């Protein structure tokens, strides 16, 4: 069985992430979305459980997608679960240097056993990032084009804004 793991902080999950998950789910027998802590990023808006539950809801129609959280290195999760492929998304050249470094580090740490494949973003989501979503929402701006309606509502709640859930766009 061909299994891919898609790790990230997903704080919160955006349409860009969901697009990568959908496309990856067609390429692999099973995709594990792994919600992780990123020490390079400021304290998260959502707890790991909240992030896991939001991704589960957003991917509930995809039978071969499972969502889990993990405290540790992606490579250790891969080793423990006999997984050899990491999936990551690439938006712009600015992602490239960071992603290349992690991919090569993971390859070295796994003694060549774990490779990373990249899905380039769909153009319409290329501007999207979780940090932009948080920034816009903190000023009560419109994040409905960026995330599913139930995620938008949860993000606004975190910033103390009361929004009626809108349909997904
Ligand atoms: P991390 O904290 O590991 O960078 P993120 O949640 O920010 O995790 O992103 C997870 C992965 O999804 C990364 O590979 C990132 O480049 C990718 N990604 C984020 N937003 C998009 C998008 N709009 N289109 C495609 N890939 C994306």
Number of strands: 5
Bound molecules: adenosine-5'-diphosphate
Q: SSE order in H/E notation?
A: EHEHEHEHEHH
Low-confidence parts: none
Task: Going across the biggest sheet, name each strand in turn.
Answer: 3-2-1-4-5
Using only C-alpha atoms, the radius of gyration works out to 16 Å
Helix proportion: 40-55%
State the end-to-end CA separation: 34 Å
Overall 3D shape:
globular
Tell me about the largest β-sheet: 5 strands, parallel
| Mean pLDDT, all residues | 94
- What percentage of the residues does DSSP assign to strands (E)? 15-25%
Alpha-beta classification: alpha/beta
The number of distinct helices, counting runs of at least 4 residues, comes to 6
Structure description:
- This protein has about 170 residues and is an alpha/beta fold.
- It has six helices and five strands, in the order E-H-E-H-E-H-E-H-E-H-H.
- Strand 2 (about 30-35), helix 2 and strand 3 form a beta-alpha-beta unit.
- It is globular, with a radius of gyration of 16 Å.
- The chain starts with a strand and ends in an 11-residue tail after the last helix.
- The model has no long low-confidence stretch (mean pLDDT about 95).
- Bound molecules: adenosine-5'-diphosphate.
- Adenosine-5'-diphosphate (ADP) binds next to helix 1 and strand 4.
């Amino acid at each position: 069985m061909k299994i891919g793991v898609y790790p990230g902080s997903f704080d919160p999950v955006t349409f860009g992430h969901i697009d990568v998950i959908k496309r990856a789910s067609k390429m692999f027998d099973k995709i594990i979305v792994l919600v992780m802590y990123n020490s390079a990023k400021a304290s998260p808006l959502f707890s790991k459980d909240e992030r896991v539950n939001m991704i589960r809801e957003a991917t509930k129609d995809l039978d071969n997608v499972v969502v889990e959280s993990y405290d540790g290195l992606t490579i250790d999760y891969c080793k423990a679960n006999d997984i050899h492929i990491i999936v990551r998304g690439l938006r712009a050249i600015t992602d490239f240097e960071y992603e290349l470094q992690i991919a090569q580090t993971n390859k070295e740490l796994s003694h060549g056993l774990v490779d990373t494949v990249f899905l380039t973003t769909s153009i319409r989501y290329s501007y999207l990032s979780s940090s932009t979503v948080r920034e816009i929402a903190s000023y009560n701006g419109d994040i409905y084009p960026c995330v599913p309606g139930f995620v938008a509502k949860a993000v606004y709640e975190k910033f103390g804004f009361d929004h009626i859930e809108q349909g997904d766009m």
